[in-house]
Amino acid sequence: MCETCGCNLTSGNMHIAQQPRSDGVTAVNVLKNLMSENDTQAAHNREHLERHNVFAVNLMSSPGAGKTALLEASIERLGRELRIGVIEGDLETENDAARIRRHGIPAVQITTGSACHLDAHLIHKALHALDLDAIDLLFIENVGNLVCPAGFDLGQHRNVVLLSVTEGDDKPAKYPVMFRAADLVLLSKCDLLGAMEDFDHTAAEAAVRALGREVPVIHTSARRELQLDGWLSWLREACAAQRESLRHYRPVTDGPALMFPQL
Amino acid sequence: MHELAVCQALLDHVQAVANAQAADQVTRVQIRIGPLSGVVPELLERAFYLARAGGPAACASLVMKTTGIRVRCRSCGRESAATPARLVCDVCGDYRTDLVEGDQLILERVELLRSSQMPEATSPGVQACVKPADVT
């Protein structure tokens, strides 16, 4: 790998990768993933989290799908078994972090200004503002947006995407990149299912399956008639599985995946 | 609208290649974009022609090769073409598939000029910056 730019050109293959033409132009085959810088930082974040035995979950949804409300309800139920920390991403305000802190949980607010997503570099900075040795489970509440956050690995262990029943049940078909990235889809605000005649939860699940995904689709409600058992069991199991795998596995830092030029 | 962030990353890579090659001018940048990469080619192109200013790629053209989508079925093992919102097996209909192609976002190729190679007419300042709409 090239030391200067991290690409896959070496002195050994340079002569094949570079093709000088008669007009004086040199063509260099690169084959470099455009997200590689973010992905390298994300891999570093993941290693950092694993060194401190922290299990990280990235929560994504459109604005207003109930991410913060779900976190508040989950903290109330899980707070005594797991030590929880939260990173909040919003364009502006500390409002969500303040809501979380009211439950006695450490929360770091990232305000992105006009940026529509969190990236691995922002998360890295936030990780250093948290005492990771005092956290078992870290929630990253991404900026409410079903488009951009899907493209940025943050170093999390699982992606959870919320779809509230006040939205359309065809959202997975409309935002395939986001829903394909999900390890778990939560149908939120299910206490309103009776009132939302247009939302067919079987159609929502079928739209997830149409994306070629086997992931669980779990119903939740974080207000009034609480419906959290399925979600919390998934979380407990995923967290325990991660801890078990870390017992046998020591993460190694690695550069971006090596790619070879197609010649 | 994260295309500007992606574009900045693209130009950083291009700059690094130009530096490593001791090139003075980048003439052409070729990328490969899949429909499931989360990037809209038209928006990326618009961002490119704004963000390229001031660097070695200031006069470079952007060529975007868009790919199709292909999935491999976990049940029947066959490969078939798919669309962004319907990634099921086209042969047996099973939804349990793996993506073979369609989410790439790759810088494939950079074409550049070194000052020693630069013909008079294409030296910087002489060559006019053009903005071709070269999406294939």
What does this molecule look like?
Chain A has two domains: 1-32, no CATH class; 37-248, P-loop containing nucleotide triphosphate hydrolases (Rossmann fold). Chain A is 32% helix and 19% strand. Chain A contains nine helices and nine strands. The longest helix of chain A has 20 residues, at 229-248. Chain B is an alpha/beta fold and 136 residues long. Chain B has a single domain, classed as hypothetical protein PF0899 fold (2-Layer Sandwich), CATH 3.30.2320. Chain B has helices at 3-20, 41-51; strands spanning 25-33, 61-66, 70-73, 79-81, 97-101, 105-113, 134-135. In chain B, helix 1 crosses helix 2 (41-51). Chain B is elongated, with a radius of gyration of 19 Å. At the A-B interface, strand 2, helix 2, helix 6 and helix 7 of A face helix 1, strand 1, strand 5 and strand 6 of B.
The strands making up the biggest β-sheet of chain A line up spatially as 5-4-6-3-7-8-9
Q: What pair of chains forms the biggest interface?
A: A-B, 46 and 49 residues
The H-level CATH homologous superfamily of the largest domain in chain A, spelled out, is: P-loop containing nucleotide triphosphate hydrolases
CATH topology of the largest domain in chain A: Rossmann fold
Major sheet of chain A? 7 strands, parallel
Quaternary structure classification: heterodimer
Residues in helix, % of chain A = 25-40%
Fraction of residues in helix of chain B? 10-25%
**Percent of sequence in beta strands of chain B:** 25-35%
Q: Name the poorly predicted regions of chain A.
A: 1-7, 253-263
CATH architecture of the largest domain in chain A: 3-Layer(aba) Sandwich
